[in-house]
Structures are given as C-alpha cells and as structure tokens.
Amino acid sequence: MSVSSSSSSQNHHFLLILSFIFHINKTNNNKNNSVVMGLLLSRTLASKCFYPLLLSKNVHNDFFPQQLENMISLVSPRTGRHLQRYEKGCRQVVGCIPYRYKSNGTQENEIEVLLISAQKGSGMQFPKGGWESDESMEQAALRETIEEAGVIGCVESNLGKWCYKSKRQPIMHEGYMFPMLVSKELDNWPEMNLRKRKWLTVDEAKEICPYAWMKEALDELVSRQTTINSI
C-alpha cells in the first residue's frame, strides 16, 4: 500500500470514528455516554489509528472535539512489560520535552517547558515511558506525553540517546527524548488524577528535575533552538 493510500485510509477511519462519536452524543444523552466512548477508543485503536494520525499531520491538532478529549481521558495508560522493547538487556524508554514560546519572543530564555509530577517520590520530570514493540519511537513518545501530561503538538526530531540506571531495578535504560511544540493542552487526560503539570522556565526546570539525563536533553533542546533563532 502506498503512503498516500495509507494516509487516506487512516483519515477515512478517523472520520468514521468521529461520525460515530457525534451519533452517540446526539442520540444517547445519558450518563453512560462517556463510558461508551471510552470503550470505543481502546488502547489498540489509539495506537493503531489515533496516534499515527496525529503524527502524520493530516489532521490539525486544533481539530480536537470535546467528545474525543473525553474519550482520551478514559483510555487506560499502558501497563505491563509484555510488549516492552529491550536492546542488549537495556530497556528502551522514550519521552518528550513539551515546550512553548512566551508571547513576547522566541529567544532562548523565552522557552517554557512542561514538567509533570512523579508518580512515586518527589520532584518533577518530563513525560516518558517504555517504548513498545507495536509502535514507532515517535508514536511511543506521543502516547506517553498524552497519557502523562495531557498535551498534544508537533513531535520534532530526536534530541539524542542517554543511558542511565533504573532506580527501582538492577538494569540499565536507554532513554530517547523528542521536543514537542505544544499546540493544545487537554482539560482531561488519562493520568490527570495521578499527576500535576506545570510550565516552567528552562532554569526553573533544571532546578526542579532530579534526572541528569533529562537536564542534558533540555540543554540539547536549548542549543538547537539557539541555532535555529540565529539563522
């Protein structure tokens, strides 16, 4: 199947989903609506249709109806390690540095980044999680960011790879981080009851984030933005 026909098929499936959502909302206005819609957007459907479609940029991020946002909030975050990728014994981890520009400029010190609270322990960090075998690296980064931070946007090119030791297990992790220029903050998302999120300056983020590899990834993002702005 060609790229164009694949994209057309994805768009067709997505529009069918939206049509069904609106049909449910129009014909069945009871309290079980959200449950029905949540069941419709299973984790498999999200991974196979919704996340790839967002990455393809065939649907603008602003086109995000409230019904779909409600469904996203009901999708259970992925758990378990049966699909987890490992490379030479190292667990593969991916995540995003969600960022935006302040309204008064686009210079290095005008970048703000979004951090989330850790589920266990103190401190704040960037959204990240395991890269699984049924998704691309970019899809995994987008999925983890939607699940944990409740934001969507443009996933940009990889910032690099970092090796670090797990705090809970005697294994090494390989972490990959992607910048995400945020276009929309969701009011409802899967881990909204488990995490807090906060926009911070680059300096504030470095002070509050306890992970050296994430700080290095942030430095790489700042360096990249400085280069872009100097052109």
For this entry, give a set of tags.
24% strand, 9 strands, 231 residues, alpha+beta, 7 helices
Given helix and strand content, the structural type is alpha+beta
H and E string? HHHHEEEEEHEEEEHH
Q: Helix fraction?
A: 40-55%
**Largest sheet entry:** 9 strands, mixed
Oligomer: single chain
* Tally of separate helices: 7
Described by the principal axes of the CA atoms, the overall outline is globular
Sequence stretches where pLDDT stays below 50 over 5 or more residues:
35-41
Strand content: 15-25%
What's the layout of helices and strands?
Elements: H1 3-27, H2 33-40, H3 43-56, H4 66-74, E1 86-87, E2 90-101, E3 111-117, E4 124-125, E5 128-130, H5 137-149, E6 151-155, E7 160-165, E8 172-185, E9 197-201, H6 202-208, H7 212-230
Structure description:
This protein has 231 residues and is α+β, with helices and mostly antiparallel strands. 41% of the residues lie in helices and 24% in strands. The chain is built from 7 helices and 9 strands. Strands 1, 2, 3, 4, 5, 6, 7, 8 and 9 form a 9-stranded mixed beta sheet that branches. Strand 3 and strand 4 (124-125) form a beta hairpin. It is globular and about 45 Å long. The model is unreliable at 35-41 (pLDDT under 50).
Short description:
This protein is α+β, with helices and mostly antiparallel strands. Helices cover 41% and strands 24% of the residues.
